Amino acid sequence: MSEIIVNGEEKKEKKKISLSFIQPSGAFTLGNYLGALKNWVTIQDSGEFNCLYAVADLHALTVRQDPKALKNQIYQGLAVLLASGIDPEKSIVFQQSHVHQHAELAWILNCYTMFGELSRMTQFKDKSAKYADNINAGLFTYPALMAADILLYQTNFVPVGQDQKQHLEIARDIANRFNGIYGKTFTEPEPYITKSGARIMSLAEPTKKMSKSDPNQNAIITILDTDAEIIKKFKRAVTDSGSGVRMGEGKDGINNLINIYSAVTGKETAEIEREFEGKGYGDFKMACGEVVAETVRPIREKVNEYMNNKDYIDEICKTGAERASIFAQRTLDKVYKKVGLVVKK
Ligand code: AQP
Question: Is 90 an active-site residue?
Fold first, then answer.
């Protein structure tokens, strides 16, 4: 499965498949951009892979969502992908629920995923503690849907952050188990770890990841924040009581700001420490705010343009889903045959 359809022509290329998903579970953050989207664009532009990018709307339902807000976040997710540089001429861009094979394969894979392994998933433990009044079956079986997302496309590589590695491992285990029973059916996906995969922490609690579902708006920078909001949030960022701009143990706040400054400017830590020699945290926070505002501004402006042109987003998604379904159906037919289901004639 390495053919890809580009502008209606089927090309037979031996390129590897790379797949990335983003959940529309809140306003997209600087963490999503620096830790994932920026790298996804580099992977796409390398020309080495056939890339698929999707907004994982079905996954977002594992946590109770306001329907109106969810709809807006799905569009925003697609707008953020496009505004960050994902190009629908080069990559397949779609909405997960538009390719029905995801839910269908997930059901089958559920039957090849063990209760014990799902119980060990860190994300299930974290989210069931966080949403104790809604520990639903979807939250528990989420990894089987994620495995379906990946395995449907015979994906070779999944660009992942450290936090997502466990999900990829379970997808590999499920593929391996299924292949062991029925013979080679799925490609076993591998993690694709990029050198510049920055992990961005909360501005309010720098030992915690910056997460879009964080209710504290001062903890996160969103792609839609204005320049003034960004600068204000950096000014309020939590740091220790020291003063020198230096990386160090226990200095989680300042370490995070140095990481952000480095990810945005491309400068190494030593260079940043030299640049701010003799300056205080206040000056550095201001400088961080300014460089981040510069980075976010063009993306925000493009996101707003796309959000005012939802017909265009719909068109991209329709084409993307059609292209994705061709590959997805091929895998699903193969799976149906292997397990003994009769494929629809
Ligand atoms: N703070 C972060 N630093 C680096 N990378 C991050 N990613 C998310 N937050 C950071 C990466 O963004 C990609 C898409 O993530 P996702 O939205 O599908 O899921 P997530 O990791 O669950 O993101 P959030 O913001 O933390 O969402 P919620 O709050 O809903 O759980 C992934 O590659 C992720 O590593």
Answer: no
Rounded to an integer, the average pLDDT of 124-140 is 92
CA atoms within 13 A on the CB side of 19: 26
Model confidence at 4: pLDDT above 70: no
How much is the pLDDT for 276? 96
Report CA(256)–ligand 1 centroid distance (Å): 16
Does the beta carbon of 269 lie inside 6 Å of ligand 1? no
Q: Which of 161, 176, 23, 157 is closest to 114 using CA atoms?
A: 176
Torsion on CA atoms 22, 78, 317, 148, rounded to nearest 10? 0
Sorted by sequence, the CB contacts under 8 Å of residue 233 that are 6+ apart come out as 203, 218, 221, 225, 289
Q: Whose CA is nearest to atom 29 of ligand 1?
A: 213
* Domains contained in the chain, CATH given: 2-198+309-339 (3.40.50.620), 217-306 (1.10.240.10)
Interval 304-318: pLDDT, tens: 999 999 999 999 999
212 assigned to active site: yes
Q: Which atom of ligand 1 is nearest to the CA of 60?
A: 30
Taking only the tens place, the pLDDT of each residue in 205-221 is 999 999 988 889 999 99
User: β-strands 9-12, 49-55: how paired?
Assistant: unpaired
Kindly report the pTM of this predicted structure: 0.91
